[in-house]
Write a structure and sequence with these properties.
By secondary structure, chain A is of the alpha/beta class. In chain A, 35% of the residues lie in helices and 25% in strands. The mean pLDDT of chain B is 86. Chain B has one domain (57-293): MetI-like fold, CATH 1.10.3720.10. Chain B has helices at residues 2-8, 13-51, 57-61, 74-105, 110-124, 127-141, 148-172, 176-184, 189-218, 221-224, 246-255, 263-293, and strands spanning 64-65, 70-71. The chains are: A alpha/beta, B mainly alpha.
Amino acid sequence: MTVAQAAALLQPAPDYAIDTKKLNLWYGTFQALYDVDLRIRQGMITSMIGPSGCGKSTYLRSVNRINERLGYVRIEGRIDVMGQNIYDPGVELIQVRKQVGMVFQRPNPLPISIRDNILFSHRLHAKGGGDVHPGTPDEIVEESLRTVLLWDKVKDRLKRKATELSLEEQQKLCIARLLPVKPKVLLMDEPCSALDPKGTEAVEELLWELRGQYTILIVTHNMAQARRASEECVFMLMGKVVEHALTAEMFVTPIHRETADYIEGRYG
Amino acid sequence: MTTANTAMFQASRLNQRNEKVQVLYRILFGIMTLMLITPVLLILGTLVVKGGGVISWEFLFTPPTDGMRTGGVLPALIGTIWLVMTALLLSVPIGIFAAIYLSEYAGDNWFTRTINLAIINLAGVPSIVHALFGLGAFVLFFGFGTSILAASLTLAVMTMPVVIVATRESLQAVPQAFREACWNMGATRWQTIRRVVLPNSVTGILTGVILEVSRTAGETAPIMFTGAVFFTPFLPQSVFDQTMALSLHLFVAATQVPGIAEDVPYGIALVLIGLVLTMNSASIAFRMWLRGKKKW
């Protein structure tokens, strides 16, 4: 065991899964985030709301460093995930992606079988040891699909292509395939916007199931969803965090005028 | 009241005119399509009618005799297969790997733009210029002499742009969402390419290879100075031998041999087309088999 690992063991687990300090982000010359300070509570569902272009998706995409693929992105400040600054030079990008899973607006299952979708990330990471599901492939597939409440529906067609599933099932599969490598944080960028109300309800139900075990950060345009499906809520405007409070409080007694106006639909 | 309502749903003068124009364009497009396939049918028809008579096992499997007036095409047939296969072996890996780099790794900067421009220009270079380049570079400078290797290298250089462009296009046809899905699970670029991008683009890549086979087999100019000879009764033993080739053999038989029976050149052409079609069918079959598997 290295000194760093020993020190990590001695420290108490941080209460905050994501701790952002003075995060500034530029796309070229356009500044998308201004001094964002955000602490996301561990094991909770936090929703992010705000008008289009306010930076909520940009923030989300900085947490698993998918933004930097664009090349012209410049970042200042730090984001600690589980106590470790993920922008530290010594941090391995692949490990960040493993610890911080992401679910997209449009379900994006790979055009391979349901089973292979679930095992995809496991196969990528299993050989390297570390914190992955120890079970056999069959156990992993079953457990992951049970967790996302999909097992009973698809257990007889695991060999079928994932793209044949309904959008709701595809989205659940996209969540399920993150689980075998045991991520700590799940980022969701409007995960229900391609789904019908029934599918939305099913996914929200799933979020409550995953709560506690995973820290979930969900961007949504749907105010009712933020209210129903999250415990804390972050309101952003023009690249800044305006308000961060318990969802129940924010929707009843917002502190800032902009928050109140947005929640009541006066702009958006 | 009732009359007004029925009139509302009857064809007006404008509707009738639109309908006429619509039929006119349909006929126009149909005629163009017919014109497109007519030459193909005519060529194939002429070849079969005029050259079909000479095709026999003997024609395929004996060397030419009597100053190429009689006998068969065996050395040319085998030579063309050698040339095509060697050219494929050289250009397909380089072309595909380069296309993967350009499509999956390279950023959009002046360097990649220059390379893309170079590829487009390489595709536009006339084959006789390639031939002279091959003569200078491979035959003389690298000292391969006039050999299958030099000729295939020339062919490979010439057909590489086809492979690169076809590969790059089929790679880019793979939805970006697949790549994002992989990256977000912590896959490296290579893992993403190997497990998702290539399996989903292999059929398109093979189409590029098929195109290349057809073009390589038929080219005459690039091999004329670099490796193909008028006549040799011997079959090539290695890539350092000279060889006959169907395309050059056809040119020679059609223009340089006095007193040759008229149906022999047609027969040679038929063998050449038959060879290309056979190779194409093989790769199409392979492509369909891969598509069925979708996993490799």
